[in-house]
Write a structure and sequence with these properties.
This protein is mainly α. 69% of the residues lie in helices and 1% in strands.
Length: 475
């Protein structure tokens, strides 16, 4: 294949070249600081090249990849999140293996975002799936929980990938194409085959999104993971899979049967995630259950196509990304070597008196996730509700309100604990703040506040389409 026949978004070769450099560096002469530095440069270079590509896109839309404003927006969020996660784990990286796996998983997620075909999508998915078990096991002080989490993820992820691949095979047998198109029965194929393909692909994607009833793996895996890796699972993998979900199931009209399935999954996901979060005493498990509920909120916007859909999904993805990354960055800053997780909510008691900066930033992030001003989360949840009002989805709006009230309770409960009387728990011991984490928390807090108070300045340039357009524009 010659160059002018090739179409490749530039972040993919940039990330691949960075991975090759890191492999060569590890084989030539190991240096503890050089691996993270190479990873940082690679992610920054990929972030700077999001809008560029090599070659020309095929005019008939048969290419493996697509590049438009929707992919640019989600790729920016993926690469920015990976950069933040690398900064969270900067002091705890031992050698270059961790950084190599992190950049490799980011390559897989980025390939998923730019995919317009089953082949690069599944390859990207498997790159993420093979990198994450290694990242999950990078917890030096608590090896057994980390290995348990890695094994659970490996087995369950492999099972869901097999279901997804089987569905893709049935879809290819039905349509004769590997492009993202909903399987529709054609002459010579039984109608049940198209329905089976759709159900299996939907089930595989719902597992990766941890939507109810495919959600039970997420709290267990995140509880045993290092804090930055848990942030990767909660943010990067969700953004990449949701981008593919929108691209795939937004490619054509949805059947009434599939509409009913989506309706039920949205309701179960919002209520199930929030009710599970009520019972948690671990902040890591609470954030896992909270992320399940946020997937349900995003699915409401997907379920309500129209003039508000593009803005609602984009704003909510941005709000969820920066707020969740902020919570995990604060957890990383609060961790001590004896208890690197610092995830028991009771240990956060008295944080306002001990470390007011961290407590204030944590309160801001939690309020944003709950949808309370002045955080960007308020605007995001308002726009999700607006899409439901536009389509008169009364039941979904009721579930949205109920879920938000439940979420407000457990988010405010954490703030209440931090405002309690100070204790001498390991979490609240005086500890010098790491400068990279301080800078990261400040930047994320500024995005949350500025995005909430002046949304037009920070959000409008990111919108994938102009008002009234589709969520899936063409280039």
């Amino acid at each position: 294949m010659i160059v002018h026949d090739l179409f490749l978004p530039l972040p993919l070769p940039v990330l691949s070249a960075g991975i090759m450099l890191m492999l060569a560096d590890m084989a030539w002469r190991r240096a503890a600081a050089r691996g993270p530095a190479l990873g940082l440069v690679t992610l920054l270079a990929a972030l700077a090249t999001v809008a560029y590509h090599v070659g020309a896109s095929p005019p008939d839309g048969t290419g493996l990849f697509i590049q438009d404003r929707w992919t640019a927006c989600t790729a920016l969020l993926v690469l920015f999140s990976a950069l933040c996660i690398l900064l969270m784990s900067w002091r705890d990286v031992a050698g270059g293996e961790y950084t190599l796996l992190l950049v490799l998983a980011t390559l897989g997620a980025t390939a998923m975002v730019f995919s317009a075909n089953d082949i690069p999508f599944f390859l990207g998915l498997e790159i993420v799936g093979m990198s994450l078990p290694g990242l999950l096991a990078f917890r030096r002080h608590q090896i057994m929980p980390a290995c348990e989490a890695a094994m659970k993820y490996l087995i369950l992820s492999g099972l869901s990938s097999a279901v997804l691949l089987f569905g893709m095979g049935l879809a290819y047998a039905t349509t004769g194409s590997l492009r993202f198109v909903l399987p529709a029965p054609v002459a010579g194929t039984p109608p049940a085959m198209a329905m089976a393909a759709t159900v299996m692909i939907l089930a595989g994607m719902f597992f990766k999104l941890s939507a109810v009833p495919f959600h039970m793996w997420l709290p267990d895996v995140m509880e045993g993971a290092p804090v930055p890796v848990a942030a990767f699972i909660a943010v990067v993998s969700k953004i990449a899979m949701f981008s593919v979900f929108v691209r795939y199931f937004g490619a054509g009209p949805v059947t009434p049967t599939l509409n009913g399935v989506l309706y039920a999954v949205i309701i179960l996901t919002i209520l199930g995630g929030n009710l599970l979060a009520l019972r948690q005493t671990s902040l890591m498990r609470l954030m896992a259950c909270s992320s399940i509920a946020h997937v349900g909120y995003l699915l409401i916007a997907f379920f309500c196509p129209g003039s508000l859909q593009a803005g609602a999904i984009t704003v909510y993805l941005l709000a969820y990304t920066v707020s969740t990354l902020g919570v995990f960055a604060i957890m990383s800053a609060s961790a001590v070597p004896a208890d690197p997780g610092g995830t028991v909510i009771a240990e956060w008691k008295g944080l306002f008196s001990r470390r007011p900066f961290l407590a204030t930033a944590m309160s801001l992030m939690l309020l944003s996730l709950a949808g309370i001003p002045p955080g960007i989360g308020f605007l995001a949840k308002f726009q999700i509700a607006a899409t439901g009002v536009e389509h008169q989805r009364d039941l979904l709006l009721c579930v949205l309100v109920i879920g938000s009230i439940i979420g407000l309770y457990y988010y405010l409960n954490i703030i209440r604990v931090m405002m309690g009387t100070a204790t001498l728990s390991p979490l609240t011991m005086d500890r010098r703040m790491q400068p990279e984490l301080t800078a990261l928390i400040i930047v994320l807090s500024m995005i949350v506040v500025i995005g909430g108070l002046f949304p037009a300045r920070i959000i409008q340039p990111l919108l994938p389409v102009s008002p009234g357009g589709s969520i899936l524009p063409t280039e």
